[in-house]
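Cross-check.
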Amino acid sequence: MSSQHTARLPSGLRLGNQIKQCEQALLAEKHRVLRPFDLTVPQYAALLRLSETPRISAARLARQCGVTAQAMSGLVALLEERGLIVRTRSEAHAKVLIIELTRSGKALLRRADQAAIAVERRLMDAFPEQQLSVFREFLDSAIEVLAGECPQRPWRSGDSASV
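Predicted model, tokenized:
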């Protein structure tokens, strides 16, 4: 291994720090735009996932949102208390509760999603199309290096991983 790879790396040069700063800025902005809807970013993420994958268990929702089952349990209870979701027993597994959006949950998500999409579009619009494509490739490479898996690429037309 070269001395370059074993030498001390100042925090200001570490990609992880820069990625974390970007993530924190994105989450802070989404939190700001979701506040008028009385939603946190994790609550919004759960509602969005439920709209994309209806009738799933809390455990599966937790995996899709990247949180623990315990964290999702509290979040689901709060969303149910607000009337945004409903839980019913699974026909296949009596001990499993299936979650789905209520009408008011769908309506709130439609409004909140417009605000979140505006944040995403503002970020994407900061890059010319070619740079955005290269940026996405760089992010995919980072995911592959760190997670050892090829990420889904719904933004790339004709990519079989996005299906």
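The first helix runs from residue 3 to 6. The mean pLDDT is 89. Passed to J.P. for a second look.
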